[in-house]
Amino acid sequence: MSSPGDSRRTTARRRETALFLLAVPALLLLGIIFAWPVLRLLAMSVEDGTLANFEKATLDELYLYVLFDSVKIAAMVMAICLLVAYPVAFWLSRAGRWGVALGMFALLLPFWTSVLVRTYAWLVLLGRNGVVNRWLRDAGLIDAPLPLLHNTSGVLIGMVHVLLPYMVFPIYASLLRIDPDLSRAAEGLGAPAWRSFLRVTFPLSLPGVSAGCALVFVLSLGFFITPALLGGGRVIMVSMLIEQQVREFLDWPFAAALSTVLLVATLAIYALIGRITRGARHA
Amino acid sequence: MPRILGYDRQPGADRTGGSIARRSRRDILLAAAAAGTAALPRFSHAQGGAPPKPDRIVVNASGGSMTSNLRRFYFSEYERQHGIRVVDTSPVDFGKLRAMVASGNPEWTVTEIGGQDAMRAVELNLLEPIDISIVDLSGFPAMARQSHIYVGATSSTALGYRTDAFPDGSHPKGWAEFWDVRRFPGARSLRNHPVDNLEFALLADGVALDKIYPIDMDRAFRKLDEIRPHIAVWWTTGAQPAQMLVDREVVLASGWNGRFFELTRRGAPVNTDFTGGSLKTSAWGIPRGTRNAYWGQQLFRTMTNPRLQAAYATELSYAGLNPQTISFVPEDIRPLLPAAPANLAKQFWMDLAWWTENGARAQERWNRWMLQR
Description:
The structure holds two protein chains of two kinds.
Chain A: H1 4-45, H2 52-59, H3 61-94, H4 97-111, H5 115-126, H6 131-138, H7 152-177, H8 180-188, H9 193-221, H10 225-230, H11 238-247, H12 252-282
Helix pairs in contact in A: 1-12, 2-12, 3-7, 3-9, 7-9, 8-9, 9-12, 11-12
Chain B: H1 25-38, H2 45-48, E1 56-60, H3 64-82, E2 85-89, H4 94-103, E3 110-113, H5 117-123, E4 150-162, H6 175-179, E5 188-191, H7 197-204, H8 217-227, E6 231-235, H9 239-246, E7 252-256, H10 257-265, E8 270-285, H11 293-304, H12 306-316, H13 341-345, E9 348-349, H14 352-371
Parallel strand pairs in B: 1-2, 1-3, 5-6, 5-7, 8-9
Antiparallel strand pairs in B: 3-8, 4-7, 4-8
Helix pairs in contact in B: 3-11, 3-12, 7-8
């Protein structure tokens, strides 16, 4: 004998199965174009039956140093993006129709331009005789050109520019989802605007912050062309070493080991970001 | 006006990313001798009359503007002369060449061969020998007279400088003077890569042109330590040194001569000094067993024509090695060509064999050196 509860459970299970079937094509696609190559990559790195490639990738100070440097740069890019993006997202979430249109236009226009073109544009702007240094000199603010290019600051400027939209949009989206009555209630109960922001709005926007940070961080870690062109050779990212191994030395197993180390490091830091923001939300 | 140059690579020598140039002639000949003993004796068509004309031959090259220039200067002349259509394909692909030869019926009549692969193609007996009764190489420099490889255009990594910073020939000549920051002040740029730079460092340290190889890495890196604080930019793409010279980001830079050539011809205050330049060539071959090998040899014959080579070089600076070519080049262009006899004499041929053997080791050391603070 089936009780009404049983049939309800069966319906729920059926619905679940149906939903799962809907996701099957996407999962298959991901499996074929993502999971399978990643597994192949892993297999390739241990092709010779030893862990020698991983030993070299994780114990050799050269590769450790580059990995550490890449993580450092990715973290800096993430931090700067967050500092710049939050106010923009906050303003967008409070702006009128025209403000949003203007803000979106300003954010999306560069977003649709090739990374390469934008990187070359920075070369023109930031050079010793570039537009920025000329302005500063003409304005009498500096005597000698600032070293804005071919060093870490050039790389940071270029990467933040490319990655900023990835931080703005998630934060903007989560700010929009917050019920405006909540901060109104906080203010109605006597909290000054800054306290209502710190205690109500900001914690509620943390999912967006977390998503934005994770996106920017992960994308930064794999960045290639911007650091190669704006770093003047002084900034080496893991992706550059991987490319070298693949293209020049045809040492694909070692490239695979480096990629795997990068992937693991990325996942670890991704998990860490999730944990920190989740912790902050519950606090 | 700053100009935005694209992310691209030097044609010819550097298509594979530039780690490696061509092997020395002796190595190629040694390998060719090994491969040649296995090959059957060849019938020379010059005595037996030409085989029937096909309606087309297939030429595989790197594509893009390189191929369109080849068509403009060589293929069109070949088509006119023989009434055979030249169909071009791309890209240059060693794996495909190997598979085609193994299949016994290569689609390509002629193919360009990238970097160190020329050497391997000869070792693996993938190419027909060059028929010197058709392709007359007498008088060509020794390194162009190879048994199975037709040596095409020459390019060089040389010293570019701004003529307003160093007027009236007061520029540094060669790498010892490039290293001399007191006599020749100003920001400099070198490539972020050990290839060429190790050679330049040795030349700067007083090593003779013919004593560069095998490279003494310790000595080269010690010398590089000296110049390092004065290198404003370590460039990665072929467009960079040219653009940095135009933007006055630097006043001296190593770079691919074709880039500097383009600027000089357009009147930019940039010129090239070839002292101690690193020469490379492009390599071509006829896949073994291809149907119209004879007509492939005829294409090489067209490509050795000094008048055509001169027209090509006048436009692109990448001159072929026919010794008569230079006399058909306008006089003001001659000093800008890496293959001009006066320039050839002060440069060296990059040793592909050394780089094939030691490239990975040199690169790893280079990365380490780069990361030292």
